[in-house]
Amino acid sequence: MATFPVDPAPLAAVPKLLPQNVEAEAALLGAMMIDERIADDIADRLSEDHFFEPVHSRIFAAIKRIRKEGMKATPLTLRPMFTEDLGMRALGGPAYLAQLTGSGAGLIGARDFAKQIYDLAMLRTLVAVGRDMVERATDTSEEINPRKQVEEAEEALFKVAADNTTETSVKSFGQAATLAIGMAERAQNAGGNLSGITTGLESINAKTGGMHKSDLMILAGRPGMGKTSLATNIAFNAAQRYMRDLEDGIAADRSVGTKVAFFSLEMSADQLATRILAEQSRISSEKLRMGNLTKAEMQRLVQASIELQNLPLYIDDTAGLSISALHTRMRRLQRKHDNEIGLVVVDYLQLLSGSGARASDNRVQEISEISRGLKTMAKDLGVSVLALSQLSRAVESREDKKPMLSDLRESGSIEQDADIVMFVYREDYYLAMQEPTKPMADSNATVSQKHAEWTTRFQEAAGLSELIIAKQRHGATGSVKMLFESEFTRFSDYAGPG
What we know:
The protein is of the alpha/beta class.
């Protein structure tokens, strides 16, 4: 049910300035009291906030409530609810309910009346938003931040535009089945195991079916596990596949790649670009930063840069974004790129802020708002959202360092809102910090044995990473092994023994 943030008090004070049709409201309410089928249909299309006349708003709310209880909404059944209503008294008392059913004008064009009432409510909301924009833009008593005001104005306008139809989102089974078959055909055309956007890693695609529209995926891990590297790899792989498919003549809507938006709240755009160039040219990130390159390496770097010049990967490295500002910027990007962005990466969730002025007073509530906002953005824009997340330090205090869902930092709502929760885990990272005393010439056998055992374990784990899928709303949980080349910040499929 669509609603608009309309405050009836100031609207009633200036009725001549606001779009309205009180007669259409009266006719529609009369029809709803005459025909219960109309009442049930319209109840899903409008809310009480859409009515201009406050008494009509209360009558509509009463009709909805009484129909929900399974009773017929007639002047007689509604009468007890309005015996003390002062607004109703001004219109002649509860007898006004019977007057509404007198003409029956709304029986023929109930849907048309409902649409007009809705559209007029939208216009009144635009007036209210416009007034607020003018008042805030002309108020210089507070700190002036025009960029923030523009983003907040865009957000307010989007809330109006998002509810731009009175039609419900209900689909018949036939429509839903057609969508499901289309998804299956896409997976088959991609060679199987992939019904969504590719991650570029076959092992992950096989486990998840790719990244799907409207899904919120959480990629979590402790510092040093490589979650930003994996997210960067996935973003690059999806964008590169899209670019190559277009070059091969494959239509954009049939590609398993996509344009990608990467919101980096921690690293700058050039740092992310450095990671991608290091991965593709197979040159150490450290060498790139230091500029310590051979002529051959410089040629490889230039060649990689040329090849990736038109990569559809767009990086926003603005720090300190709020969840509403992120949503606004993403909508702006979608408009600019013809709604072709299918994957949004956010690095990382805890660096976003909530919309409340004192949100930091309750961090758990703020994180809950952020995770809900990310899921809402995924559904509103029809994109897949991959959000990175920190884990609590509880992992470090356990002997078994493998993360679990309870380690998600600050809020259980992250787990609740996410469609998929994945953890990156590297055993070699922890083993490197647990190296026992190295044996010397005069060391006893116990010291040598402990170090030998550690060496064997470290060699077996070196260069391996595990992606633990702890939650998957549409599939099974489990884990996949990957190779990780830390020098190039590159993840790849592991072809060794399970």
